[in-house]
Amino acid sequence: MMPTLLAPMALVALAALALPLLIHLARRTEQRRTDFAALRWLRAKPRPRQRPRFEEWPLLIVRLLLLAMLALWLARPVTPAAPDLRPRLYVVPGIAATPAARWRTEDSDAHWLAPGFPSLDGPAPPAIVPVASLVRQLDSELPPGVPVRVLVPEVIEGADAQVPRLSRAVDWRMVPGRMPAPRPATPTPLALTIRAAQGRGDTRYLAAVAAAWQAPGRAVDIAALTAPLPDRGKPLAWLGRGAMPAELVAWVRAGGTAIVPAEMTAPPGPVVTAARDGQGRAFLQLTPLGQGRLFRFTVPLSPARLPALLEPDFPDRLRSAIRPAPTPTRAYAHDIAPDTGAPPGFRPTPLREWRDVIALIVGALFLLERWLATARRRWPGP
């Protein structure tokens, strides 16, 4: 296969080959001229014109080779390497050592199914690994035709919501084992900030929602519309009328979450249903706005128009719309067994670099050049 240079511009260093040539041309011979008294009366004959001569040819050749190899080392020559077609065995952390060893063969390349795919001979990664994502990654990185076997426990932790679809068939084996259980996340209370116009009677409904969300004993932040806006990490209920003020729109676009009543006009944008009441009727809509989110009630905040206001689960229903529950990551292994049919992705050709070999040649040439340059004996030029 034809070699390739990763840094071909480094071949400009070949211009340095002119230095040894100039040095050897300008170098004077070590032979000294001695005049005899008997020859002083003889007529001096004109010397014939001499052609440029290089002295010490072996030393010159070694120096030229040394500079050429240095330029080649800088250019980083590579050749396509033969793909590794050994069978692969990947073991999900949590599998016992005995079942994993039973499925391992002499010619297989065994790894943990973990980021970086560490060798199976090393310790098992203690953290939960994204099994589906790692299976997709190894499918995209391995050469076509490589047999792949994955040992998984019956229950997978860290699964995503989609079954992996690969470009090859995978031997998906369920063996005894248990993945580390994730630590239960402690949800932080939502602190709803309310900015309301003077005399609005529907403020008390959202104040009750804010009190249900917050930790016991904390006061609800309720102020007039002229009060400063809160931090963008806290949801804001803006109970006004008419068009949204520019200050509020900019606050939402910068990453804030706002809730406005039905009497307010929201900026144009895509609208999706965010929450429904017990009869399945939508009462809250979501409009993505810049980096933030804008929630808008579809009906006025009154029990006559929105009976869900008086239901005990209304605060929980509204909180689920604003901060959805995390997606479950636990699944049975047979339910997320990889499927086939995905097109093969781009797989870079493995390359074999020759810089280490060239470095050895450079070292040998340097030692030879030093020996020739310091030796007492010199080879005469032609």
DSSP strand count: 20
The topology string of helices and strands comes to: EHHEEHEHEEEEEHEEEHEEEEEHEEEH
The helix fraction, in percent, is: 10-25%
Q: In oligomeric terms, what are we looking at?
A: single chain
Report how far apart the termini are: 40 Å
- Output the structural class: alpha/beta
Strand content: 15-25%
SS summary, helix count: 8
Strand order of the largest sheet: 10-9-11-13-17-16-15
Averaged pLDDT: 82
What does this molecule look like?
The protein contains eight helices and 20 strands. With 382 residues, the chain is α/β, with parallel strands linked by helices. The chain folds into three domains: 71 residues, no CATH class; 105 residues, no CATH class; 130 residues, no CATH class. The strands form six sheets. The chain has a seven-stranded mixed sheet, sandwiched between helices. The chain has a four-stranded parallel sheet with strand order 4-3-5-8, with no helix packed on it. Helix 3 links the parallel strand 3 and strand 4. Helix 2 runs antiparallel to helix 8 and helix 5 crosses helix 7. InterPro entries: Aerotolerance_reg_N, Double_TM_dom. This is BatA domain-containing protein.
